[in-house]
């Protein structure tokens, strides 16, 4: 089954990528941008068909590889 | 209002980042991974409070900066 994982920097952690995008959009004439945060989205296609088991497997992947849990938070969602 | 933009490589476009993650997870002992695609998620905080207008603004940002529409597709969603 398909699992979607969102990995974002935690609130309070400086996000230079988001700041760069915000600055670039500002110079292009876009107005009213109060903030931008950029993160990763990872779409997993797993053989496991049980939703709970697949989500548990994805969470383990996040803890071990996909997210740096010191500065990033993740969200696992079955599609 | 908050807008969420997902930018993914189009189907058929080689995703070396996703392939690297898939390989790494394989070497770590995770089994049953049939495919991984990695993309970007951008959370915009816009001053515009009208949903339709904010989404239209986000779409314009995607066309002009956030996505390379030759190889990437994007999805705009109001939160």
Tags for this model:
homodimer, 79 residues, alpha+beta, Mth169, Chain: A, 2 helices, 3 strands, elongated
Note the overall shape of chain A: elongated
Q: Identify low-pLDDT runs of chain A.
A: none
Strand content of chain A: 35-45%
Report the top-level CATH class of chain A: Alpha Beta
Radius of gyration of chain A in whole Å, from Cα? 16 Å
Question: CATH superfamily assignment of chain A?
Answer: Phosphoribosylformylglycinamidine synthase subunit PurS
Biggest chain-to-chain interface with counts: A-B, 32 and 32 residues
Distance between the termini of chain A: 8 Å
What spatial order of strands do you see in the largest sheet of chain A? 2-1-3
CATH architecture of chain A: 2-Layer Sandwich
Task: Describe the fold and architecture.
- Two copies of one chain form a homodimer.
- With about 80 residues, chain A is α+β, with helices and mostly antiparallel strands.
- The first copy, chain A, has one domain (about 1-79): Phosphoribosylformylglycinamidine synthase subunit PurS (Mth169, Chain: A), CATH 3.30.1280.10.
- Helix content of chain A is about 35%, strand content about 35%.
- Chain A has helices at about 15-25, 50-65, and strands at about 1-10, 35-45, 70-79.
- Chain A has a three-stranded antiparallel beta sheet with strand order 2-1-3.
- The longest helix of chain A has 16 residues, at about 50-65.
- Chain A is elongated.
- The model of chain A has no long low-confidence stretch (mean pLDDT about 95).
- The interface between A and B is medium-sized, with 32 and 32 residues.
- Strand 2 of chain A pairs antiparallel with strand 2 (about 35-45) of chain B, so a sheet runs across the interface.
